[in-house]
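sanity check this chain:
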Amino acid sequence: MIIHVSDIMIKKNTVINAVDSLHKAQSIMLKENIDCLPVFENGQLIGLLTLNDIICSNPNRIVIDAMRSSFALLAPNTTIVEAVEILENNDAKALLVVDGNRILGIVTRMLLYIEYSKLLDTLTELYRSQYVYQKGEEFIRKDKDLSLIFIDVDKFGEIDKEYGHVFGDMVLKEMGVLLKENIPDGIYLSRYGGDEFVLL
């Protein structure tokens, strides 16, 4: 199953005005159990205020004086992989999920990285198959050509039986390293499962 930001976003769409007090913003965050608020001025989104922004500011100031955190806007069908790329390219503290001019929810950095970490295979340190599905969806949405190559370690079951699972795990890990070090840019690699790997 491909995970989109709409699947993990915090659906509270509470906002704050630029001229509201930091005390009001802090009260809203505590009441709603959220750590950031979109900031509006004259009906327009102008920024993001985080709990950290409040902590680092004079409590007697207004929201616009304290907001320092960057953000990025996403469509609800943005995949987790795309969202991480956007987050890192914009050095954003949070991602706002929007539909036109309407804010649907917020994806915080922590929430996104928790979900993203589920895409990593701990043995080989490669992505899991879910990653290739998400990249594949991205290619299809952008009308880009794609090809898949599946790699299977021949007679891996015999290796496992004769030398044991620990040795088999070492073979898989080394295979992952060899593939990772030898694929060109623009190729996406995942452990597909068991002794199978996939290149997109």
